[in-house]
C-alpha cells in the first residue's frame, strides 16, 4: 500500500498576510501495472524560471509526465517497493515510461529494464529505506538521509531490500551547457 502525502500550499490573502491556501492529501499520483510496486506523487509543477509564487494554488493537473516542463521544475516523491527479479525480468520498461510521456528516455538493452535518462538536473533525498542507483557501469547503495544530484545521466533505481524506499525528487529542466550550440544542448554531452 503506497503512502499518502499531506500537501500544504501557502499564499497570501487580500491584505498580503501569509495564509494556508490548500491543506489536503496530494492526489496527482501514478501507479501502473507496467511498473508494479512504484508510486509517483507530484506535489508541484512550475513551467518557468523564475517560478511564480503568486500563481494558481493547484499546478498538478493533466497527464502525469516524467520530465519537468520545458524551462520548469517538478517536485515529487517516488516510493519503490522491494523488487522481485522474476517479475522485473518480464517487464517492458519502454512501455512503462511511455505511459509518462517518456518512452524515448529508456536506454535500450541496459542492465535494468527501467534504465533511463532525462535532460534535467535532479535533486534527490532518500527519505526512507535504501536503494541502489544504477548507472551505466557503477552502482551505489543509498540509504535514508543520503542525497544525489543526478545530472542528465543514464540511471535506474533498484530496491533489492525488504522495506519500501521513498525518495523526494526535484527535477529541473536542464541543458548540457548554456553556451553549447542549440543542437548540443540536449542529450549526453560529448567529451
Provide a count of the helices: 2
Strand order of the biggest β-sheet: 3-4-5-11-6-9
Largest sheet: 6 strands, antiparallel
State Rg: 17 Å
Low-confidence stretches: none
Overall mean pLDDT:
94
Order of SSEs: EEEEEHHEEEEEE
Instruction: Give the class from helix and strand content and strand pairing.
Output: mainly beta
**Total count of strands:** 11
Query: How much strand content do the residues show?
Result: 35-45%
Note the overall shape. Answer: globular
Can you give a write-up of this model?
This protein is 5% helix and 38% strand. It has two helices and eleven strands. A hairpin with a 4-residue loop joins β7 and β8. It is globular and about 55 Å long. The model has no long low-confidence stretch (mean pLDDT 94).
Distinctive features:
191 residues, single chain, mainly beta, 6-stranded antiparallel β-sheet, globular
Which secondary structure elements does this structure contain, and how are they paired or packed?
Elements: E1 6-12, E2 18-25, E3 28-31, E4 38-46, E5 73-80, H1 85-88, H2 93-98, E6 120-128, E7 130-134, E8 139-143, E9 147-151, E10 156-158, E11 165-173
Antiparallel strand pairs: 1-2, 3-4, 4-5, 5-11, 6-9, 6-11, 7-8, 7-10
Describe the structure concisely.
The protein is built from two helices and eleven strands; from the N terminus they run E-E-E-E-E-H-H-E-E-E-E-E-E. It is mainly beta. The strands form three sheets. The protein has a six-stranded antiparallel sheet with strand order 3-4-5-11-6-9, with no helix packed on it. It has a three-stranded antiparallel sheet with strand order 8-7-10, with no helix packed on it.
